[in-house]
Design brief:
Strand order of the largest sheet: 1-5-4-3-2
Number of helices: 6
Strand content: 25-35%
Oligomer: single chain
Shape: globular
Largest sheet: 5 strands, mixed
Order of helices and strands: HHHEHHEEEEH
Length: 217
């Protein structure tokens, strides 16, 4: 019995050694890719084109937060997209900054604003919509929405910068999806014709007009 056990032990040891050597010979063989660091997180996976106004709002928020600007945000905008700043933004921006706005200009500007240099690149971007409802204007396929939003940036030095305000959004494709954003007009809540915020947006630098020329140039 003892010799049999010794023989078995030596045989097992030899098998382990053989398997070990076989494993070492495959050190440089292809390996399966690592799983995502944060599987199932808010930026994981693709965001399909919006089939309704609520999905468009959510897709735009995620595209800013996840910096998916040249893909999801670009695809969320109508080819004829235009942006109109509020009067306060125009007064503070350099002359002509908001002239000839287009979808390409919009995407490039927001991409610059949310990327920036290593020293100013936000470590976190949070987009919140406090109000998003039809304002009764526009048409069935191109309704206009009353929007109140905030954009929070956490910078590398842990400081926080907020932009917020009201806007008039015109959508297109509601009756024939995908739904896209046709126009974005920022409104100063203290100006005539501005929307009435349902919650305070201060302390904030200003509307996204300020975000565009402060960080997007």
């Amino acid at each position: 019995m003892q010799r049999t056990q010794v023989g078995r032990s030596r045989g097992a040891a030899g098998l382990v050694l053989a398997l070990s050597l076989a494993g070492q010979s495959c050190l440089f063989s292809p390996r399966d890719p690592k799983a995502p660091i944060n599987p199932g997180g808010p930026c994981d996976g693709s965001f399909p084109p919006a089939q309704n106004p609520t999905a468009l709002r959510d897709r735009i928020a995620r595209s800013w937060q996840c910096r998916l600007l040249d893909s999801d945000y670009f695809d969320s905008l109508d080819p004829e997209f235009t942006y109109t700043p509020d009067a306060n933004s125009v007064a503070h921006a350099s002359p002509g900054f908001f002239d000839a706005w287009s979808r390409d200009r919009e995407v490039t500007t927001i991409q610059n604003a949310l990327a920036g240099s290593a020293a100013t690149r936000p470590t976190e971007v949070t987009v919140s919509f406090l109000l998003y409802r039809p304002n009764g204007l526009g048409t069935a396929d191109r309704p206009r929405y009353e929007v109140q939003y905030t954009v929070k940036l956490v910078l590398p030095d842990s400081s926080v910068v907020r932009y917020g305000g009201c806007a008039d959004w015109e959508l297109i494709g509601v009756t024939s999806p995908p739904v896209r954003l046709r126009t974005w007009a920022d409104l100063n809540p203290f100006e005539t014709g501005g929307c009435t915020p349902i919650r305070p947006v201060s302390p904030s630098v200003g509307t996204t007009g300020f975000l565009r020329f402060d960080r997007g140039q």
